Amino acid sequence: MKILSIKPQQAEMTRSLLMPELIDAIKKDLPVTALVAVENGRAVGAIGGAADDEIFRILSIFVHQNYRNRGIGKALVGEIENIVESTGMLIRAEYTRERSDHESLKHFFSRCGYREDIRPIPGYYIGYVSNLVDSSDRAILPELCRILPFSEVSEKALEAAGKTAREADAYVPEGGLFSEEILRDISHVVLYDGEVYAFIVLEQPSEGMLTVEALYSRIKDRGTMLAMITAAAKAVKGRYSPDTKIAMLILNKETDRLMQKVLRDAKASSFTFIK
Q1: Is 274 a member of any domain?
Q2: Last-in-domain residue among 116, 151, 168
Q3: Is residue 49 within 8 Å of residue 59, measured between CB atoms?
Q4: Strands (E) located in 97-239
Q5: How many angstroms separate the CA atoms of 235 and 237, rounded?
Q6: Can you give the pTM of this predicted structure?
Q7: Which of 26, 44, 178, 213 could disulfide-pair with 67, CB 3.0 to 4.6 Å?
Q8: Confidence class for position 118, pLDDT limits 50, 70, 90
Q9: Alpha-carbon torsion, ordered 51, 127, 25, 63, to 10 deg
Q10: CA-wise closest residue to 5 among 40, 66, 39, 47
């Protein structure tokens, strides 16, 4: 068995082994690390992940059912660990309940020396467009305050907003707020006197799936934030079918409360293991 790095031109050969979002990232030559286990010329297992600040996250791992219990999965994890160790980053393994084999994965990562990280707010949520509701009825916007899609905001204002967010250690998508991946008619901002004070970024990593990539605010008015999120939700409902999935990473309790008001019945869907 050989373990090889997956190049953009080889991504399709592992589509049945890795999550679609990771495959798309490999094809676009984005900064992800992905490996494939090959036996007798056949791809039998694969693993992939990406670095986020000082943490490398294993986001996808799969071994073909006919090749399990032969140490291939542990070998893939070990090879990723060797790569990450040289960078000095911490390593985590993350996966969601969307996978039917999530229970066996819990045991697998435990055998690889990982332990489950129990957080107050499970970070990854899954909902559907059909769950989106209008929660902006009580929002009264301050004077000079407008909520607009990215497509109607000047490049200068977006560039300044991205810089301010980064300075506050908030997440901004790679490529900034001009990334080609951003859905510009759906992602929205709070514009106050010509300056962006808050934004929500949505992308479509694969067919039938939307992701809330970033949510940032310099304001403390929950009503205004809720109005911005609802504006984005309305734009989504007008363009996507009810069964389209919406995935989001919740980082704090305030964001959790806001998103739960707009995306009702979203399910916590993540496990995180640390070593």
Answers
A1: no
A2: 116
A3: yes
A4: 115-116, 124-128, 145-149, 188-192, 195-206, 209-217
A5: 6
A6: 0.58
A7: 44
A8: low
A9: 80
A10: 47
